[in-house]
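2OG-Fe(II) oxygenase: structure, please.
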Amino acid sequence: MSEKIPVIDFAPFREGDTVARSALAAEIYRACHEIGFMYLKHPGIDSDLIARTMMHSRAFFNLPLTEKNKLAWSDEPSNRGYVGVGRERLDESKPGDLKEAYNIGFESGSTQLKNQPSLSCNRWLEGDDRFRDTMLDFFSACNETAKVICEALAIAINLPEAFFVNNHNQQDNTLRLLHYPPIKQTPESGQLRAGEHSDYGSFTLLFQDAVGGLEVRNTRGEWIEAPFIPETVLVNTGDLMERWTNHVFCSTKHRVRIPQDQRAKQSRYAIAFFCHPNHDTEISCLKTCHSKERPSLYPPITAGDYLLSRLKATY
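Here you go.
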């Protein structure tokens, strides 16, 4: 397991009976416990929707910087909008990351006004309803898949099936479009496309292109490749899931390095869906994850407070 990220067919969990679901949950347990990453085949998201979302993402990042900056990210509590190249620093000890991003959150519908910057409003391109509609459709599809993954994670650690679903039902999630531009000049010392980091929430769904560069640190401290595998989504557990489960599930460090070949001159695109618990959920050690021999490692903290602290450190 430390040499290779497992590929798991998720269809038997989504479509199977209790026995099939329990068997799949056991596979997911091993992946989340031993490495914190897994590829899921048949995740339940339409491939045409994934392709359409990627197409709109490329078109967005090809816009002039002046247009993208009209939607600029402004603060940690909202965490929405456009983030320019070098603005984010995932490894606090290194220079800013060689990437740009665009963050989208849950949108409640007609109660929101387009382009109104607030805690509950996304920042949309004016006059481009196709972009907006595609992103909201993709957000919804990822959220539905996340619900089923929540069920699998709960079964894996002997909790009621609805436990994680109920603690993620406010959709405090973030959809992030990512673009890593071609490298046109020598990076600063230690600078990467995305610095070494772990994700902050419960788990992440990652959709990437074939350019490559994503690496995961295994239990021996070695960096192993996490390449693009067609018709899969890459899933990794994050910091809050690690805290919740008392390190039964791990939050593994990863990074996006700069390729040492012609791919460095190519754009790399990815889409991440960060699944977070409800803002006011208390993250404290789960009853099935501690014992006298395995005491709780962390004090309780609300999911919102933890996320805010990590975003402040990142920006």
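Notes: Residues 214 and 285 are 31 Å apart (CA to CA).
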